[in-house]
Specification:
Helix content is 39%, strand content 19%. It has helices at residues 15-27, 52-71, 92-106, 121-133, 172-183, 198-212; strands at residues 5-10, 32-39, 77-82, 110-114, 144-148, 166-169, 217-225.
Length: 227
């Protein structure tokens, strides 16, 4: 089901690692993987998003994203740098076209994107744009579309829970690589039981493993599959 060309669509740098860092580690040496970041993931923390400090933070986070993906053996990455936590101010059609252009250029057969269940509005918008961009047209070759979970966003939506129905087995080394990659984002890593802690990532992998008969796993929602 997982093809040879995998596109990972993330709202912000670090969502890729949190959502499917284990899968990236598992497949990066045998499949072609590209990651695109729609938003810059930094300026929402600043009172003035146009300040020099905010601009410097974007540059820093961009480098973190590159460094984190290098740990997972991925070098093909694009940054669109739309405003963090403000994707709802960008015309939906513009985001659709950005993703469509990436699909037409990279020609993936498998795409991982955000779940519509996430609390984060940027995640929801990226999910919707991906669904639109991957509508089943004759000239599109996307065969598998999966939604990943993002700790501290997916599980905290108590009214509309992330409900995985597809699991990918991981080994200990792949989970450790995911932890190592997340550690690049030092400000995002908290102390357990914070979901974005290193132990939190391992605990989630073991939980998803128990659900699926594996020791360790990452879990996804199947959005579309074509055979």
């Amino acid at each position: 089901m997982i093809g040879d060309r995998i596109l990972i669509i993330a709202a912000h740098p670090d969502d890729d690692i949190l959502g499917c860092g284990g899968v990236i580690s598992k497949f990066s040496l045998t499949k072609k993987i590209k990651v695109i970041f729609i938003g810059e993931g930094s300026t929402a923390r600043f009172q003035d998003p146009h300040s020099q400090e905010a601009k410097d933070e974007i540059i820093s986070r961009t480098q973190m994203a590159v460094d984190a993906l290098k740990i997972l053996n991925v070098n093909d990455v694009s940054f669109l740098n739309l405003p963090c936590s403000q994707l709802d101010t960008v015309p939906q059609i513009d985001i659709n076209r950005i993703i469509e252009a990436s699909i037409d250029d990279f020609k993936p057969d498998t795409i991982f994107t955000h779940s519509s269940k996430d609390l984060n509005i940027d995640h929801q918008i990226v999910n919707k744009a991906t669904l639109i961009a991957t509508r089943p047209l004759p000239n599109r070759k996307v065969k598998t579309l999966l939604a990943y979970e993002v700790p501290s966003s997916s599980e905290w939506n108590f009214e509309n829970q992330f409900n995985p129905n597809y699991f990918i087995e991981l080994n200990e080394q792949q989970v450790k690589k995911k932890q190592e990659a997340l550690s690049i984002y030092a400000s995002e890593v908290g102390v357990f039981p914070f979901p974005r802690s290193l132990l939190g990532l391992e605990s989630l992998a073991r939980c998803r493993g128990m659900q699926s008969g594996y020791i360790l796993a990452e879990a996804f929602e199947v959005l579309r599959i074509f055979e």
